[in-house]
Amino acid sequence: xxxxxxxxxxxVREVIAPVLRECPRACGVVAxxxxxxxxxxxxxxxxxxxxxxxxLAMAFLExxxxxxxxxxxxxxxxxxxxxxxxxxPRAERGARLDALLG
Length: 102
Fold this sequence. Notes:
Blueprint: H1 3-20, E1 30-37, E2 43-50, H2 54-63, H3 65-73, E3 82-87, H4 89-101
Parallel strand pairs: 2-3
Antiparallel strand pairs: 1-2
């Protein structure tokens, strides 16, 4: 990944992070584990994990998409990436591994 997508990924993370604090309490701690920006800057895939209710956190973020798009529109870029939220599969795998070992 070149420097530019990494820089844009950092900006996307900064825009989304404050909204995560507004997630419902039932979600527990919600975190962005990774942001991948496509090489043509069309998409930013945001991987999310949650301590408890990940589906609720994902639904919350989807509801906030218009607000997040407006916030991203404030950055001075020709192309603003389309946001896509995905569950971080590493968190589920870790939980299954803990269950197997415990």
